[in-house]
Amino acid sequence: MQNSRISCVSDEGPISADGQLARVVATDAARALIADIKSDHGDILFHQSGGCCDGSSPMCYPKDDFLIGQTDVKLGEVEKAEVWISGPQFEVWKHTQLILDVVPGRGGMFSLDNGRERRFLARSRLFTPEELDALDSKE
Predict the structure, then answer these.
(1) Average pLDDT, the chain
(2) Which residues are bridge partners to 100 per DSSP?
(3) I need a surface site. Which of 28, 34, 109, 124 has the fewest CB within 10 A?
(4) What gap in Å lies between CA 110 and CA 53, rounded to an integer?
């Protein structure tokens, strides 16, 4: 299996499309799959639960079909799709940038990437102390 190239990486690390530091970014492959799914389903969102049934894959749902939990944390948006994470999972990952990527395979049973022979995968990188300070001052 060939690794996907993370195309949103600069020398300083992944940044968002508008050049600003973000808690979530996406590869070109993920952006392309998002566009495909949105053309079939309209507005979508992602939820990163770290759950049991489909592992820790980011799950993609129609925006109006998923109920956000009281402790869920919005990481940001990718291609106008909100990206959420469960509160307990955020506590574990708050020092990392989530990178939505795509690899060959089947998506989670209830995720909209299922059946497309490509699935979303969460990668991450550690924020530097300076980046964490900048994020904390924005939030």
Answers:
(1) 83
(2) 26, 122
(3) 109
(4) 10
